[in-house]
Amino acid sequence: MPAEGTLPTARTLAIACALVTATACTSRQIERYAALEWSENRSRVAFSRDRLCEKAPCESLYVGPTVETAAALEGLADGQESCDEIAWTKDGKRVAFLINGRQLRIYDAETRKPAGKVNLFTEGDASVGRIARGVTFSDNGAAVTFDDCPRDHAGCRSGIVGIR
């Protein structure tokens, strides 16, 4: 008889544990850093952080002295935009986020204000299947070099864009 008396208590405890676990999982936000890059002198960090939202991933761009103190710059279009890479100027004054492998969004790292948007490809049919990789600022920050690559096979070529 004693074993029968503990069975309902154990069952009740197991159900309660399952409910607590399910509640904790649904209320917890799952986040990841999609891209993260320190400035050359390591005085600032830029990153994109995404999390699961109701209908699609939500991604935001950040910059600051540390990951913990960084401020959000901009939220990307849910499920439509994502940050692939981050590049800093040599002096650490500006940072560029590569969005969808095609557009740079440049920010002043100190003021956190937008400093420009640069489309790395024209919107013509020939560039639709291409993406940028390996984005790097020139030494003076006046241009960006990148690898212009096909989406689905090998064969990258050099690309350069002036940004001033």
Describe this structure in words.
The chain is α+β, with helices and mostly antiparallel strands. It has one domain (30-162): YVTN repeat-like/Quinoprotein amine dehydrogenase (Methylamine Dehydrogenase, Chain H, 7 Propeller), CATH 2.130.10.10. It is 16% helix and 46% strand. The strands form 3 sheets. The chain has a 4-stranded antiparallel sheet, with no helix packed on it. It has a 4-stranded antiparallel sheet with strand order 5-6-7-8, with no helix packed on it. A hairpin with a 5-residue loop joins β9 (130-137) and β10. The radius of gyration is 23 Å and the shape is globular. The termini are far apart.
Which tags fit this structure?
single chain; 164 residues; Methylamine Dehydrogenase, Chain H; four-stranded antiparallel sheet; 1 helix
How would you concisely characterize the structure shown here?
With 164 residues, this protein is of the alpha+beta class. The chain is 16% helix and 46% strand.
> The CATH topology is what?
Methylamine Dehydrogenase, Chain H
The residue fraction in helices comes out at 10-25%
Main beta sheet strand tally, sense and closure: 4 strands, antiparallel
CATH superfamily, please? YVTN repeat-like/Quinoprotein amine dehydrogenase
Unreliable stretches:
1-27
Placed side by side, the strands forming the largest sheet appear as 1-2-3-4
How many domains make up the 3D coordinates? 1
Present the secondary structure layout.
Elements: H1 2-27, E1 31-38, E2 45-52, E3 57-64, E4 71-75, E5 83-88, E6 94-99, E7 103-108, E8 114-119, E9 130-137, E10 143-150, E11 157-162
Antiparallel strand pairs: 1-2, 2-3, 3-4, 5-6, 6-7, 7-8, 9-10, 10-11
